Amino acid sequence: MMKMKGMNHAHGGSGGMASMSHGGGAHGAGTAKEIAKGAVVSGTIHTGRRLVNRLYKHPWVLIGLGFAAGYLVHKHRKAIISSTNKVVGKGKDFVLSQKENLEDIVAEHEEGKEES
Q1: Which candidate among 12, 55, 76, 101 keeps its CA 20 to 30 Å from the CA of 29?
Q2: 13: left (phi over 0), alpha (psi -120 to 50) or beta
Q3: Alpha-carbon gap, residue 8 to 98, rounded angstroms
Q4: How far apart are the C-alpha atoms of 92 and 15, rounded to whole Å?
Q5: Across residues 27-32, what is the average pLDDT?
Q6: How far apart are CA 52 and CA 40, in angstroms?
Q7: Residue 106 has what pLDDT?
Q8: For the segment 54-108, what is each residue's pLDDT rounded down to a tens digit?
Q9: DSSP 8-state code for residue 2
Q10: Coil, helix or strand at residue 6
Q11: Is the pLDDT reported for residue 29 higher than 90?
């Protein structure tokens, strides 16, 4: 094991891990909760993936899902089209503003070249 320079100090007392309590109890409990959450999420995802893979192998389930999706798209088609048009309009505005910003930056750069 490599010894690091300047790391040979003692905390006083008898030494060891027992004397090095720095109040990390709350931090340790929070970490344990996060680890438990991660384990639960991982297990849920694995179980859900197995269930979905099993369901997708049955043709009637796929046909039913297709009908349900088609019905919902048909029922909400006006809202889908209007929200899509809004997104396209915002995208065009964003591209135009970025083009203007780029033109401004190029113009400032050319002015800086002319001055120097």
Answers
A1: 12
A2: left
A3: 56
A4: 66
A5: 72
A6: 18
A7: 92
A8: 777 888 888 898 999 999 999 999 999 999 999 999 999 999 999 999 999 999 9
A9: P
A10: coil
A11: no
